[in-house]
Amino acid sequence: MDQYHVCRIAVAPLRSEPSDRSEIVSQLLFGDRVLVLEKAEKWCFVRTHHDNYKGWMDHKQLQQITALQYNDEQSYKYVTAINFDNRLVTDNGEIYYLSPGSTLPFYQDGYCYLGDNRFEVKTEPFVPNPLEFTTKVEATAKFFLNSPYLWGGRTFFGIDCSGFVQTVYKLLGKQLRRDASQQVEEGELVDFLASAKLGDLAFFDNEEGKIIHVGMMLSNDKIIHSAGKVRIDPIDNQGIYNMELDRYSHRLRVIKRFV
After folding, report:
1. Domains of the chain in sequence order
2. Which residues form the NlpC/P60 domain (predicted)?
3. In the 3-class helix/strand/coil scheme, how is the chain assigned residue by residue?
4. pLDDT means per 10 residues in the chain (259 residues)?
């Protein structure tokens, strides 16, 4: 089976079942690599390269590449910048608009490449630098303010809580897993809310103790997170307090430090 592929459209849904009616569990952005594990008519079951996430997608949204192209890590360093006008233009003049943090495979001299297809990159891409995390994380997170909440979303047109923190970290050269329940398994424990600092992640649970939400600390009493939309709310030892609802919306479980 031809298993090495890359997403060739701006954003593609990754679904729990091989059906257009099925729940979207995540999204692929342009340039995301996947391994095809199984194929059925128009659907294929894939595992993402960047976070080992599995789901079903329409194989027409993928471009086949060679094993050599798939495994060439140095060729996937460049990503689209934090702005609203990341454009690619094909050789026949078609335009693609990409979300921030989309990967530009084999970027060189103003062009990126998917298999034999060439795209002119109209906006300046960059290589995320983990050394700039502390100085840039607040502005990076605030770029997404008011983006609508979307289950499985990873773009500024719709993003879920774990997709939001994963994307912010990616734009700063840090890798996180996809879901809040996976993210909470990593990082170092921050013992007290008072010790929390900018960039730490706070995790929240439900009555059964299952992690159901994540947000990023802006300070030890403010959090930015995707709930209804990407918003900034006060946080204390009980959890997130939503001023509009005049009540606590999320119950704090644990704070983790990844940087």
Report:
1. 4-121 (2.30.30.40), 130-257 (3.90.1720.10)
2. 131-259
3. CCCEEEECCCEEEEECCCCCCCCEEEEEECCCEEEEEEEECCEEEEEECCCCCEEEEEHHHEEECCHHHHHCHHHHCCECCCCCCEEEEECCCCEEEECCCCECCCCECCEEEECCEEEEECCCCECCCHHHHHHHHHHHHHCCCCCEECCCCEECCEECHHHHHHHHHHCCCCCCCCCHHHHCCCCEEECCHHHCCCCCEEEEECCCCCEEEEEEECCCCEEEEEECEEEEEEECCCEEEECCCCEEEEEEEEEEECC
4. 90 97 97 96 95 96 95 97 95 96 97 94 96 98 98 97 98 97 97 96 97 98 98 97 95 97
